[in-house]
Every structure is written in C-alpha cells, then in structure tokens.
Amino acid sequence: MRHGKTVPALMNVQSMRRQDTMGDPGVLPPVSAQQSAYHLFSHPAEIEAFRKNLLAWYDKCKRDLPWRKLAASESDTNRRAYAVWVSEIMLQQTQVATVIDYYNRWMQKWPTLQALARASLEDVNELWAGLGYYSRGKRLQEAAQKVVSELAGQMPGTAEELQTLLPGVGRYTAGAIASISYGQATGVVDGNVIRVLCRVRCIGADSSSPAVADRLWDLAHALVDPARPGDFNQAMMELGATVCTPRVPLCLECPVKQHCRARCRVEKELEFASKRLLGKAASSCSQAPDIEECAAAATGSCSLCPPATEPWDSRLGVANFPRRAAKKPPRAERTATCVLERRGHRGEPEYLIVQRPNSGLLAGLWEFPSLPWGPGLTEKQQREALLGHVQAWAGEAVAGGRLRHIGEVGHVFSHIHQTYVVYSLLLGGDPEAAAGGRAEELQGPAFRWVTQAEFQQSAVSTAMKKVWKACERGSCEGRGPGKGCKRKWGADPLRASQLKVEAEGSLPPRQLSLDAFLKAPAGE
User: Fold this and answer.
1) Which segments constitute the HhH-GPD domain (predicted)?
2) CB-based contacts of 61: which residues, under 8 Å, 6+ apart?
3) Which of 119, 141, 390, 464 is surrounded by the fewest CB atoms within 10 Å?
C-alpha cells in the first residue's frame, strides 16, 4: 500500500500558502479577510492530539464492515481500490445497515472490475433494485467498462486521476478511494465529516455554499494523518455516523470533545447556569457566561459564522451546527398505475411489466403500465385515459367496469413526492392475445409477463413493490383466498377505498441542553 509523503505540521496560519487542489496534510491556506482564525486549527500540537485521540478511538470502536475487511486483507491494489469504490458508491445517500447485504451480494457476483464490465445492465439493475438512486449502479458499471477498455484494466492511482478519468466519481469518492486503497494523504468531506468539522470549529455559515465547502476541504486536508490517511478519513466518517450524530450527539463519548468549540460553549453555559442557580455568580456577570467567540462575529464580517438572523439556540447545544440552506420541498406528482394480470399456460397468474426509458428517473427499471396524471383531469377522465392506455397492452377490448380501483401508494424520491393511483385488471381469454398489439411495435418499450416470484427478482423499484403489495392486499380482499392469493391474508387496517402506504417516524429526544438543565423536574 502506498503512502503519501509526510509534510510539516501546521505553522502560523498567516504565513501559510494555498496548496494544489487536493492540498497537503497539516497545511492550511491563509485566512481571508472574511474568515477568522477562530474557525481553524492554528497550533501544530492540537492537530497532532486530534489525530492521536481520533485514531485511538477508531482502533477500539470501529464497526466491523465487509468493505473494511476487504480493504485490509486484499493485497492487490487494483482489487482493493475496486472494493472500496463499490462501497463508497453504494453508501451515497444510503444507510450502512441497508448497504451491507447489497455489497456482499455484489462482490460475490462481480468480485473484479473485469467481471462487472462484462455484466449486463439488466443484471446490474436487478441487483441494485431497492437500494435507491438507481443511476449509481449504471454509472459504476460504465466506469468499470472504461477502466477495462481504455485504461488496460488498471484503476487510476491518485485522487486527482480518479476524479478526472472515471465518470460518476466526484471529489469525495476520489479522496476516499485514494486514501483508503493507496494511502494517499488527502482528506475527504462528506455529510458526516461536515458535521464534525462544523461543530469542532463552530462553523455556522451555510455548509453547502462554495466558500464554506472550500474551507471545510482545507480543514480536512490539514487534519488528515499522513501515516494513516485511510484510517483517519474513515474515523472521521465513523465519528459523525455513530457519535457526532445530527440531532442527539453523544458528546460524552466523543474522543475529540476537548477540541470542540461547540461543546466548550455548551459546557460553559451549563457551568454558568449552575452557578446562577446556586447564587455563586456575581451580579455584574449574571447576564451571560464568558464564552470565547469569533472576534469578527460582532461586526458580521466573518463568512464562517452563523448569520446574525440565526443566533445560537441554547436548546440545541452542539446541534446548532452545521447549518444548511432550507431544501426545496419535493414537488407533488400523481401517476395512474395498472396491474394487469392474466392466467399463464400453466394456470399460474402472470403480470405485465414494462421497461422504463434508459434515461431519467428510474432509468431502465421495470414497472407496471403507468400514465402520469394529467393536469386538470378529473378522476373519471384519468380513469378513461388509463383504460385506453392499458387496452393496447391487453390486446382486447376492456370494459370500464373491469378496471378495479385499489387505492393510493405514496413514495418520496429525492425531489418528487409521487402518489400512485393503483388499479388492477384481470384479463380473460387466450394468454397469447394479451399485449399482442404491442408485439409488432418495435419502437415501443420492452415488456414481459412475469410470475410473482419473477417480479420480486426483477429490476423493479421500491415504489413498484409498494404498488404490488397494495394490489395484492386489495385483490385478496376482493376475491378471497384461492383466487389468485397464495395465502390467507389478515384483516387490512387500511381503508379499502383509500389505501395509503407511507412510512412514519418519530423524532428522538434532544440532547441535554441548557433549556433542559434549567427546567424544574415534574412535580416540584
């Protein structure tokens, strides 16, 4: 495993110069007129202590994850980089617990770049189904094919080359692969690292803005341990994922809490409140605790401080950081979807699925015949439009009364709140006639009839599996066991006329804060 060169620790911040794109460990660029040194690491000894404490905690507390095992045990640099790459792509916007099974199955099926490059996109989509953000799998395979066909099967050897040469590999993924697989001393910045850095240095400006993002990358490059860059970066991400969590951080368990400016502020506020309650605070200092703050904050000239309109909230404690601009709410869309069912040659129910276009949302995945809900259409008009749409697939005239309304299924994509208005239609007659009208339409989308088991194994989205579940329940209610149902279903608590499948969650309790500290116990 290669290691990046060791460079001197951080010197006086005013005398530092900007490094190249990836930066050097222990080195920060000069502080601009709009940024205060309060938000940086300005002492070499603090950086060394931060590294030592974090890595000692990581060695003791890190989770046992399959991609870490592969990275540690694989001697071939190329295969190690591929294993890390797959994990990093899967972990984007997806929880670790969800990824583990997908990762294990993926590496069993395609253990090398060459194996993935030979796979079909259909196979990739089938394995990826349910993981979300489906374009990730497609881009991963396209990049693997490029490595095999254009780079002689050899992965690029630095973060800069990875980001430049591989489609779908951005700055974070390139840094993660290079530091973990090659030992390149480069930092990484993801959501977990942003949270840790913003709290440790009280960075309250919008972390998604380019200026703040650049400063966070500078901090990450300065902090990374040149002797163990991969472990250090994983430790930063592990800390954010398991201890420095978004809403209920476990500050007492944090290995770098002595370096955390946000935590220091919370402790001083609690100490001051305690003295006030015990009558030990002098009247002249009873208005506020003595808390170190950014010198430029008072004038509003620091680009890393929170805006004046968003002051520190004692109820949140360290969870005041990071702050992001409010996200746009997902736009609402409605789609009519019909589950077409027929009896196959052996009498087993079969269902029609159609392949989506190769670009756009859920590209290349399979779904039940669907039609976007036209603006301004009434339910009756939309039903008639759907009926016309499915008749082409049915290969026979379909009376409107046969189209059975099942209910509604909700699913939230990253930018769309989609509601599927679900219908079912049981076809009769010759199985060969169904969808016969489409068989000659070479320009139309691909389609196929599948059994229930085949549907579950196909490259279908989580949303379509929700549609299936709703239709299965509704069909069993309407026809009873033995008529297309494989088992007896219990009573459905959802209304038969308005079935909604939605995930609900509850907010965890907040961390201990000044507000909670001052509140008298119940009953007093």
Assistant:
1) 90-242
2) 238, 242
3) 119
SS3 333: strand
- Measured CA to CA, the distance from residue 149 to residue 314 in angstroms comes to 57
Residue 59: what residue type?
D
Three-state secondary structure string covering 138-186: HHHHHHHHHHHHHCCCCCCCCHHHHHHHCCCCCHHHHHHHHHHHHCCCC
170, 217 Cβ separation under 8 angstroms:
no
Write the CB contacts of 40 (distance below 8 Å, at least 6 apart in sequence): 13, 28, 31, 201, 219
Phi and psi (nearest 5°) for 427? -90, 155
pLDDT tens, position by position, 470-509: 987 776 665 533 344 544 333 333 333 333 433 334 444 4
- pLDDT (tens digit per residue) in 193-225: 999 999 999 999 899 899 999 999 999 999 999
Q: Does residue 88 have an active-site annotation?
A: yes
CB atoms within 10 A of CB 254: 22
- Name the phi and psi angles at 374, rounded to 5: -65, 145
Phi, psi of 355 (to 5 degrees): -85, 135
Residue 378 DSSP SS3:
coil
What is the residue whose two structure tokens read 């990730």? 136
Give CA torsion, residues 422, 330, 462, 83, to 10 deg.
170
CB 184 within 8 A of CB 2: yes
Among 88, 269, 350, 472, which one carries the catalytic annotation?
A: 88
Compute how many other C-beta atoms are within 10 angstroms of the C-beta atom of residue 459.
Answer: 25
From first CA to last CA, the distance across the chain in angstroms is: 63
Following DSSP, what letter does each residue of 391-435 receive, concatenated? HHHHTS---GGG-EEEEEEEEE-SSEEEEEEEEEEE--S-TTTTT
Q: Are strands 416-426 and 331-343 parallel, antiparallel or unpaired?
A: parallel
